[in-house]
Design a protein that fits this description.
Blueprint: H1 10-51, E1 69-74, H2 80-90, E2 95-101, H3 106-110, H4 115-134, E3 139-144, H5 148-155, E4 163-167, H6 174-186, E5 191-194, E6 210-213
């Protein structure tokens, strides 16, 4: 589900409404009211800019070969069931890059200790890479930004992904679900979220376990 965007034709009307309100404020109440209306308008614009920053499309660079290049984003660590689903999606001869967010706890931030979050991310990468390797998926691994969307955007500035897989999401992983929805509106390559059930073994993932997000 994409966020509602401000139509281009609405902007002149918004600017005109702000200008008219300020002029009326000066005309009806003098400098005091005019300055107050102007300050209120400026504050509203700042709040809207903070709450709705520009979110450009995420377009990976073109690959130099015809292979599939799949970016695997870890909203949570890969278990055996998720590894099986990833293996079935990737198939053979796909290049895979595994990334995990470096999440720091409140006390770690307060103490300026970012190493603990990096160690947790590296541990998740090692365990996930080993689990994927058992399923036949060999991927390089990298630690990224704490924010899943920002991490994905940073990596896709240089990695020529032809597809993105997000491991996580759903009701049990609200942070991953939020990232999947945000990425689904901005990515210009296919995005799929993998949510395997604990009992998934050899069968193909169902629609409830593997969801595709279509970019506009």
């Amino acid at each position: 589900m994409s966020e509602p965007a401000l139509k281009a034709w609405k902007l002149p009307f918004i600017v005109a409404a702000i200008a008219v309100a300020i002029v009326l404020g000066f005309y009806l109440g003098g400098p005091g009211l005019g300055m107050a209306v102007g300050g209120l308008a400026a504050g509203t614009i700042v709040v809207m800019a903070i709450r709705h920053p520009p979110r450009p499309a995420i377009v990976p660079p073109l690959a130099g070969d015809s292979r599939r290049h799949v970016l695997i984003v870890l909203a949570r660590a890969v278990d055996d069931a998720a590894a099986g689903a990833v293996a079935r999606v990737l198939g053979r001869d796909a290049d895979a890059l595994l990334i995990s967010p470096c999440r720091s706890r409140f006390l770690d931030r307060w103490a300026c200790d970012l190493d603990a979050g990096r160690h947790r991310a590296q541990r998740a990468l090692v365990l996930s890479a080993a689990t994927l390797a058992k399923a036949g998926v060999h991927a390089t691994a990298r630690v990224g930004d704490e924010d899943l969307v920002q991490m994905t955007e940073d990596v896709l500035r240089t990695y020529p992904a032809t597809e993105v897989l997000l491991v996580g999401g759903g009701e049990q992983d609200p942070r991953g679900e939020e990232a999947a929805m945000a990425l689904g509106t901005r990515l210009r390559v296919p995005l799929r979220a993998i949510q395997p059930s604990p009992e998934v073994t050899s069968r193909s993932p169902t629609s409830s376990e593997l969801r595709a997000f279509t970019s506009p």
